[in-house]
Amino acid sequence: MYFCPQTLFKMHPKMEDIFEGIAQRDPDAPIVLIEPAHRHMRDALEDRLKHRLPEAAYSKISFIKRLKYADYLRLMSCADVMLDTVHFNGQNTNLEAFSLCIPVVTWPGIMQRERHTIGMYKAMGEALFTDLIASDAEDYAAKAVRVACEPAHRAMLQALIEHHSDVLYKNNDFIRAVEKILIHTVEDSDRRAD
């Protein structure tokens, strides 16, 4: 299962290229999205997908109703691979995935909101996770399909995540760094006000 549980407003048109690339490489690929709270968001996305994707790719996409948190985590734990949205990465969602040792394929950009996941991989040891960091839509689809379709490769990545992900949850250095930034920002603002 290719799971992309991000809120639908994060679904940039480049995701359609990725979905199409996955469907071309894995004809049995179920791509699962989460039903939004507001039906019009799904309708708008489905309309866009119908017009931009070939039927073979569009037919692979399904929407799951919003679930209670425990059920959502159970569903996530069934995923072979998580698909990170481009231009607006997941933060909490990907932390949840890593806590379950689910590999997340990402395509980092230059803005902060599109670098959350690469930041997590850097914290865990970026060189270990190059098989999950894409350089373009084609590379993204190829990496996602490899994780989903090659159980030994997926198991190796899951073991790496399990071994290295503690830094994402138990990291006082990060807390101190954010604290310093906030203190500096407040002090700088106070200086300007004087």
Structure, explained:
This protein is of the alpha/beta class and 194 residues long. The protein has a single domain, classed as Glycogen Phosphorylase B (Rossmann fold, 3-Layer(aba) Sandwich), CATH 3.40.50. It is built from ten helices and five strands; from the N terminus they run E-H-E-H-H-E-H-E-H-E-H-H-H-H-H. It has helices at 14-25, 39-52, 55-58, 69-77, 92-99, 116-124, 137-149, 151-164, 166-169, 172-193, and strands at residues 2-4, 31-34, 61-64, 81-83, 104-105. The chain has a five-stranded parallel β-sheet. Helix 5 (92-99) links the parallel strand 4 (81-83) and strand 5 (104-105). Helix 1 packs across helix 7. The protein is globular. The termini are far apart.
